[in-house]
Amino acid sequence: MVDSEKREGSDVFKSDLVENAYFSPIYEFPLLKRTHYTPEKAIPFDRATRTTQYDNWVHFYIHDRQFECVWNNPKQYLNLLKRFAGVITPDYSLYRSLPLAMQIWNTYRNRSIAYWLQSNGVNIIPNIRWGDERTYAFAFEGIEQGGTIAI
């Protein structure tokens, strides 16, 4: 991205989230390092701002509109998410009725936020989501084998 295009708030693609990332071979999702965690407790993201129970993991199994703010301004939420035991990465919808391009985009967004959190020292468990059979080809792309995943 040209420097003049990377002014604060102008990078709608959030390319800074994947700065220095290695990418998967086909869809070019940022590669995530495998993790081995077993959360005992988890709370939805929309409750994370109203709790002090930081031994929880934060999950995003809520409506997309309730966590779109993380994509729009991830730096605003980093310190909050770092307080918790870890994060199960965003569960962007892959509705079967969505065009395939949107399903790929939402998977990319999941991996980008996950990579960025992991790069910033947040414990993560990658969330895996698929829609119809067309999405099986990329459902696990970018996830190192042998680690914990959430479905």
Trace the largest sheet across and list its strands. Answer: 1-2-3-4
Share of helix, binned: 25-40%
Strand content: 5-15%
Structural class: alpha/beta
How many DSSP helices? 4
Measured between the Cα atoms of the first and last residue, the distance is 34 Å
Number of strands: 4
Low-pLDDT stretches are 1-5
Nearest-angstrom radius of gyration? Answer: 15 Å
Oligomer: single chain
Shape: globular
How would you state the average pLDDT, rounded? 94
How many domains? 1
Question: How would a textbook summarize the main sheet?
Answer: 4 strands, parallel
Order of helices and strands: EHEHHEHE
Describe the fold and architecture:
The structure is a single chain. The chain is α/β, with parallel strands linked by helices. The chain has one domain (16-137). The protein has 4 helices and 4 strands. The protein has helices at residues 45-48, 68-72, 74-82, 100-119; strands at 42-44, 57-59, 86-88, 124-125. The chain has a 4-stranded parallel sheet with strand order 1-2-3-4. The longest helix is centred in the last third of the chain and has 20 residues, at 100-119.
